[in-house]
Amino acid sequence: MKAFNELSIKDQGRELMQVELTPLTVAALDNYLEWSKDKEVVDFIGGGKELSAEEIENRFQQILRSENDFYWSVILNGKNVGHVSFHNIDPVSSTAEVGILLGEKSIRSLGVGAKALRLMELKGRELKLNKLIAEIDNSNVKSIRLFESSGFSFVRDLPDMGAKIYEKAIK
């Protein structure tokens, strides 16, 4: 899979950031191991349970072997800062669940997530998807804000799971 570039954000002619999606590879495992030390990351990838290095490596290998899901590293100015993914792709309804993890704490709330989601929309169009769906943990307020500001609409609560469903049509 090729990398997807988006035009850099410019401010008065000066480049501020360039976000790129590249296929996830085993080289990103070290990043995952480092990010797993962040409690916010653990809460959302481990369900609040701290994962051992072996558990993280096993999950990572499962991701790399998956034939039904697509994962990309989020690259900011040449550095891996997270990943995005499509899950549960439904060819009948042309929908996919979208996920995002920004592991580098220092870049959260800087617009990187919004740029990455925009790139996911472009990738979704390429895959002939009509709609992206996001299931977001109720306590992940930053993620809820990100998806809402990126044009995703609230669909319903999942009280048994402590989550909300958001959707966005791809045009």
Explain what the structure shows.
This protein has 5 helices and 10 strands. It has 171 residues and is an alpha+beta fold. An 8-stranded mixed beta sheet has the order 1-4-5-6-7-8-10-9, covered by helices on one side. The N terminus is likely disordered.
Please describe the topology of this protein:
Layout: E1 4-5, E2 9-11, E3 14-17, E4 19-23, H1 29-35, H2 39-45, H3 53-65, E5 70-76, E6 79-90, E7 95-102, H4 112-126, E8 131-137, H5 141-149, E9 153-158, E10 163-169
Strand order of the largest sheet: 1-4-5-6-7-8-10-9
What is the approximate shape? globular
The average pLDDT is: 84
Radius of gyration: 16 Å
**Tell me about the biggest sheet?**
8 strands, mixed
- N-to-C SSE series? EEEEHHHEEEHEHEE
Number of helices: 5
Q: Work out the number of β strands.
A: 10
Strand content: 35-45%
- Overall structural class, as computed from helix and strand content, comes to alpha+beta
What is the distance, rounded to the nearest whole angstrom, between the alpha carbons of the first and last residues? 22 Å
Please estimate the helix content.
25-40%
